[in-house]
Amino acid sequence: MPRKKTQKSEKEWKGVLAPEAFRVLRQGHTEQPFSGRYHDFWEDGVYVCNACRTPLFRSEAKYDHGTGWPSFSVPVDEKNLVYRDDFSLLVKRVEVRCAVCGSHLGHVFDDGPAPTFLHYCINSAALDFIPAGPDPRTARKPGAKKPGPAAEDGTGAGGKAGPKQAG
Ligand SMILES: [Zn+2]
């Protein structure tokens, strides 16, 4: 059994998901090949369900199948996925869904690389990417500062710090 299921109405999903993500995740659409964020994206990290943030695939399992969609050879955990036969194109394909929220992710084929020969063909819009950090479990703690350029040259043009009175 997967973890606690995420239950939302389609109306609620529509409110929280970007339009393209809603079409893919909740309506089973397939994005245009070579159109998504992740088909040619090779950073280290974890791809999570764009609806419920369940970890689905690691960057180590990602490879270029040349189809224009992100391709993976193995999931993070089989328990996070569910499979359904899909005959919508008149040939049998196996649809892949998120086990936690039931969202459509893509399809799985058996023409992938050894040793699994699996080819998870997943829509970019169904995924979100969490970059590998020093420790992802502490990365979200308030007060944890990101290393970055310390630009202190006083060109704060965006700051509208005018006098403001409350009440
Ligand atoms: Zn999900």
Overview of the molecule:
- By secondary structure, the protein is mainly beta.
- The chain has a single domain, classed as Peptide methionine sulfoxide reductase (Metal Binding Protein, Guanine Nucleotide Exchange Factor, Chain A), CATH 2.170.150.
- The chain is built from two helices and nine strands.
- A six-stranded antiparallel beta sheet has the order 3-4-8-7-6-5.
- A hairpin with a 5-residue loop joins strand 1 (45-49) and strand 2.
- It is globular.
- Residues 154-162 have low confidence and may be disordered.
- The protein binds zinc ion.
Shape: globular
Widest β-sheet, arrangement of strands: 3-4-8-7-6-5
Number of strands: 9
The value of Rg in angstroms is 20 Å
- List each distinct ligand once: zinc ion
Structural class: mainly beta
What count of domains describes the coordinates?
A: 1
User: What's the overall average pLDDT, rounded?
Assistant: 86
The CATH architecture classification is: Beta Complex
Largest sheet: 6 strands, antiparallel
Please report the number of helical segments: 2
Proportion in helices: under 10%
Uncertain runs with pLDDT below 50, 5 residues or more? 154-162
Instruction: Kindly report the CATH topology.
Output: Metal Binding Protein, Guanine Nucleotide Exchange Factor, Chain A
CATH homolog superfamily: Peptide methionine sulfoxide reductase
